[in-house]
Amino acid sequence: MKKHSVARATALAAFTALVLSACSTGADGGAGASGDCEPAGEPVTLTFTSWLPGVEEAVAIWNEENPDIQVEVQTGPNGNSGTYQNFFNQLEAGNAPDLGQIEFDALPNFRVQDGLANIAACEGVADAESTFIDWTWSQVTFGEEDSVYAIPQDIGPEALYYRADLFEEAGIAVPTTWEEYRAAAEQIRALGGYITNFSQGDVNAFAGLVWQNGGQWFANDGEAWDVTLDSPESIEVAEYWQGLIEDDLVATYPTFTDEWNNGANSGELWSWVSAVWGANTVISGAPDQAGNWAVAPMPQWEAGASAAGNWGGSTTAVFSGGENTYEAAQFALWLNTDPEALASMNATANIYPATVDGGELEAFQGGLDYFGGQAIYEVFAEAGANVNPDFVWGPTMTQTYNDVADGFSAALSGDGTLMDALLAGQEATIAALQAQAIPVQE
Prior knowledge:
16 helices, five-stranded mixed beta sheet, 442 residues, three-stranded antiparallel beta sheet, alpha+beta
């Protein structure tokens, strides 16, 4: 693990050197950067935008215990579904909320735009480093000294959600390799179902599959970015799923919609490779199937391997330009470290904390009734230990996702392929970096 930490720190330090020239105020911008993080000295009300189901319950605990620092929750769609663009618009207009939920992969976008307050000088923040899994802390500091731009919230190690009852009734073994997964897909399609769904909009989910396969989409050497959406590992994943799509072995509903929910609830969809937080999606989307779903490790590219991908994982960020940075930092720190808050967010959204000891909380012990009593967090804990922590996010991920999603949409309609989408996304990403004066390798 130590060598992973060093590699990530090196990559993030290089990231910082390469993107700060594009920031409007540079590394010293944002409240807290020069020790300016003092209490307001009077009651304040903070605004917090999040899409986490039931986060209001955790916030209510804070509000009851902190009458002088009240938090109002504003809910919105998932980040790439509109909330991030709203954040950028609000930052430009000067009316951003005090705090916002931002996924790890999107955080660099906000750093580039100087939209994050540096809360390192705020009470308790710097001392919290050892509380969090090391790679998550590196993600919120970008390798900069005396800098913290968000508090890690959760991680998204992936596994295979599957209909245990349907697999058993059909006599189909739960696949342990991607080769077996395709064979099972053919058997399931012959029975009238689909093994899973491929969504055009979840490019970050596709990135998790590339991550598991040992691929990278970005790298840097301290002087320029190398964009590699067309890496051999990435193309291998694309060709695999393109084959499933062309042979009508997967459904193509937009994920997190009524169509997807109906497919999961009716038995049309038999499995879903997703992150630990996906348990909440399955539970809420397929309420009639309680007791029938189970969790297994991700299928592997090589038999006997144990690699896992990561999809998502979020932070609680304090936006720049706010007047109550101290109070916002205290709430963000509490929300993501307090055992009662973490238990509440797990109960309402099945998140898996980014804290070192988060998985040892009582809320994560024992089985879940919906999953037939299976202790699913044990599967995800093992997956988390098998995620390569050195995966590097680029500084324009929101744009990259949007461009690749456009290509995925075309591929699902028969106009092009997933490989075409990756190549087009690569070209668009390079152009976006160059437009922001961020060096790119030739």
